[in-house]
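1st attempt posting a full record on here, be nice pls
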Amino acid sequence: MPLTLEQLNAAPAAEALALLDGLYEHSPWIAEAALAERPFRSLAQLKCAMVRALAQAPHEAKLALIRAHPELAGKAMVAKSLTAESTNEQNKAGLTQCTPEEFARIQQLNADYNARFGFPFILAVRGPRGTGLPKQEIIETFARRLSHPVDFEMAEALRNIHRIAEIRLNDKFGYQPTLGNDVWDWQEKLATHSDPGFAELGQLTVTYLTDAHRACAQRISHWMRDCGFDEVEVDAVGNVVGRYHGETPDAKMLMTGSHYDTVRNGGKYDGRLGIFVPMACVRELHRAGRRLPFGIEVVGFAEEEGQRYKATFLGSGALIGHFNHAWLDQQDADGITMREAMQHAGLCVDDIPKLQRDAARYLGFIEVHIEQGPVLNELDIPLGVVTSINGGVRYVCEMTGMASHAGTTPMGRRRDAAVGVAELALYVEARAAQDGDSVGTIGQLQVPSGSINVVPGRCLFSLDLRAPTDAQRDALERDVLAELAAIAQRRGLSYQAEQAMKAAAAPSAPAWQQRWERAVEALGVPVFRMPSGAGHDAMKLHEIMPQAMLFTRGLNGGISHNPLESTTADDMQLAVDAFTHVLNQLATETR
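the predicted structure (as tokens):
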């Protein structure tokens, strides 16, 4: 019989520890420390307690834990001396049935890894879905992680150990993240559609109104109908809109959703997670025959990334009346105008103004999104409550000095444009760090016609400055531009700085942020508040209605806009549960 939380909470200390035996390889002290926090009201709370227990342990104890794990397809497997848990995991990943070539490759990787790091390679081989990773993916991950810095790789090993323990704990309790698995599966199936030139390489790219984009819209709309939405349509800009009515015809709507387009060679979860989480919630309401005092409108926004055309946030912008009709004459790389692409897709350009929403008919907008950054991953916390979507400003700049001979120009007589920009880059780094949540980046730096033996006379560079509030962003901008001027004057340089973009911050509406916080707390997960450094559709809806966001952690260092972007079915389940909790809060408040 599966273990229950009631049993675990009621058991004497020694018995409770025995019930959790085998979660961490030969290391019962982690479960023992976590059990001090009993009673647990959820498995998620127990998992987070174990994460905290290990985080508070000394370095030597963490290293001993890693070294307690067997190598993948290593000597212990060959000798059949693995624990029952490790045997099950390596078997599910097919590692007990390696070909001689695969076995030899893994043995070499084991040797190289141990030589570099001094501890065995740790990977949760049952994967984010819990069903086992393909052997080729395991080998590729093994090879990729060999290049990590030692401190990062040790932390990555510990995160994988927690994932192994999470899956083992699920097995003990007979728990399946059923809705998280469904959300996972929807995203996997949607990712089979990709633009030509990328699909053949196994890469995911879905840009505005391509065949792959329209196939995604069709598939999402079909799934919405299967989930029980009352109305489903693809609107005049390609947004997929599903509506689940409230208890009364005049009930207000809660809007939610995210985008289904991708960057080139991107990840499977950016945007799409925010469509499928609320879809799963609506399906459960429909299955229960339950209506709420408000309706739910889920929007799969057609365009957010600005990849095929320079029209970022086209989908969400259309809903607030911000569609720029000049976009229609833009051409893609093949010379196809947006107008032609829309006509080919059967969209009616004349209907775009009709898409503008009446904010009075809506309670607000909420969005679930993968974090796209390392913070939650490093803390090993599954959810984050967004406090604000950062405002930003971008500049395209040029520093001009004097090109001269690298060998004959004394150091004190140089007018080196690149060094001036380098000095500015260090200032940007230090100045942004003063604010805590501000960030500054010089992402492009180029010396035109540069030569190895010439002091740079010109340097082209970019500036990207972001902060959670407009006032904080503006202060950062003022200081950086003032320092740019000071550096140029001190070094005898001149410069130009052209503003390319300025976007307002979108602070979360306090009442909506608090609903997310209550939902996360109810799950037994730590309430962690954080700003969003990336832009999201929520920042457009923020212009006409209150909004707030929830982040789920990403794997692989939180990388996004990348094929390695990933999260787990367990974290997706927590997002569904948190979303459901917010719906129930609203139902209670609006009756």
